[in-house]
């Protein structure tokens, strides 16, 4: 059916109008035609010739800023005149709003509200069963989804509320059409989009996958924002893992056929619903940030159910079976995968390998620009994953709906105050009970981590701060709702989470460099007391106390020592064990009891064997014997221990990114200092222990390590 669109009133001699005015007039005209029904929903109405130029000229921001996060459309095959008007005008609408929200706000919202109203009316009129044999109105589905996402980006309460309602009916309508069923999708492709040309088949197949994946994401975001249960469940996602971003954005058949040879083909052998439900999935080597993000989204139903059970049990004054630990383990396991993949991408950029290559988009003729844009995309995806991780953590450990109810009830007008006072008192009681639990502290740690990450990104001018990131806004909004002072009835929690006063006793270039670097890496406030090596051992660098006086802090007079308020912790494994409590979300002591035991095993080995028996014997043989004649033999033995230890470290890093598990731990930091001392034993680390060498090269590039090295006046050893 062709559109019943008026040709317009432009005639020769009509005064020229500015480009922006032409766009505004076009938006208004299309909005009116949508409201009047002249542009039907559910049919692929083409773009009228009158609107071709201005619509075509307003897609840059969409594909440059929106598409990377929501790759719903196939960019390489997008042609305005061959694409539905509903999709094309939605692209232009989003582009104009992203470019100049103040300039286009009124006309954009006028068009958006017209589209949303028409979409709602269309979905409310169910199709008869025999119509499901017809081709799915795919471009209408895409336009609906784009407008739902746009409403979430805009953030207006009324728009988000309407989008949330449309999202629910949209999911139900797609269920009715059995849209989520892979057999149905295959049948649609066979009957309505036949062919054998590989790029064609991939495009048809993956646009179906990507619409479902994007709907799953926005359903999670809207559910969190509206304090609701999700509408779409991961078990419904009956599709295999999508192609990589790189293949989906291959501009040109020559580029497509070049990239398809680099595609990890095994991804198509795994059902996405099974992958994202299992942190130990056999598909782990194939995971991309998008998959991990979906896994985090997929935890929402269980987290939401747990929150309801806890709330109802608390109201009834009864205990409940707590499944928080299982959900927490899953959250942390996926967080570890984010860190693992992040490390792999930052390393793979240098050698052009997977997973970095999965994010190459356009600009094959300019590899430098292509790499820069890929890295920007990766950083935005990492930010989205981490913010979703913290959002789910806040959902798990707090009850945002209850906290929001307290906030809303606290600002009612005096006329209604008497009516809400009993409910407000009840909510305050529940909030005070929660404030005394360990969960309240964990929630606040997630909240602080969100603010710390956003502040760090802004200071570094990271790419994710250059465009709208609704997950960050949602995380910050939820963070601000978590009360943390006595005014918010959180006195006990506020007192429990106050950061202790930390004092690190350290000496330049010594093993204390490790806790020094870690504190800087995770931006933990501390005071440093610098020591130096004197004739009797370490003493204050400024001469304010002797080694004998320092032994009141550290009985052996060694470094490091960490004073926590009025308590002092010595020995590296103990110090690092305590430090893990300062930023538990980083999981630097491992995930789960086995990993934590392995981390402890390594820390004890590094301190006791490598440091104590190896370097201790080589550098200070007098600790082992007062007989100077024995010192040469002791040093030789110490050097042998160092070599044996280095081999153990090197072997542990063969074909692995990290020494323990699949993410960064304290062990990865700790081995750095011993590599710095290798020259003392005349060991050429790069030649003799290449895996160890490559590992510490990467560790030395970490911000906190670089800051500590510079602060201690040292040179970079592996630059």
Q: State the assembly state of the protein chains.
A: single chain
Main β-sheet, spatial strand arrangement: 3-2-1-4-5
What count of domains describes the coordinates?
3
Taking the alpha carbons of the first and last residues, their distance comes to: 65 Å
DSSP, total strands: 5
Which structural class do you get from the secondary structure elements? mainly alpha
Mean pLDDT reading: 88
Query: What portion of residues is helical?
Result: 55-70%
Task: Indicate the topology.
Blueprint: H1 19-36, H2 49-56, H3 60-66, H4 85-99, H5 101-124, H6 138-154, H7 157-176, H8 182-192, H9 198-225, H10 245-248, H11 253-260, H12 272-275, H13 289-297, H14 300-316, H15 324-351, H16 367-397, H17 400-409, H18 414-435, H19 438-459, H20 470-481, H21 491-497, E1 502-507, H22 513-521, E2 527-534, E3 537-540, H23 547-550, E4 561-564, E5 567-570, H24 572-579, H25 592-619, H26 631-652, H27 666-676, H28 685-688, H29 690-700, H30 703-711
Parallel strand pairs: 1-2
Antiparallel strand pairs: 1-4, 2-3, 4-5
